[in-house]
Specification:
With 64 residues, the protein is mainly beta. 0% of the residues lie in helices and 19% in strands. It binds zinc ion.
């Protein structure tokens, strides 16, 4: 029952394969599920666009 998707063996660079990203909001550290890989820790296809996939330096704004 394997879905025939592109092999995603590339660790997400945004979260370094952890599946979570820490952001400093108001000086408070919180861990959020990585929007780039949806918390999987593996990089999704290039079609998967988080809000602003640039360098992963800026924490994504909550738009959902
Ligand atoms: Zn990620």
């Amino acid at each position: 029952m394997a879905t025939d998707e592109t092999p995603t063996d590339i660790p997400c660079s945004a979260c370094r394969g952890t599946g979570t990203v820490s952001s400093n909001l108001g000086g408070e550290r919180s861990e959020l599920p990585c929007p780039w890989c949806e918390g999987r820790g593996l990089r999704l296809g290039p079609e998967h666009n988080a809000q602003a996939v640039g360098r992963g330096d800026q924490p994504p704004d909550q738009a959902a």
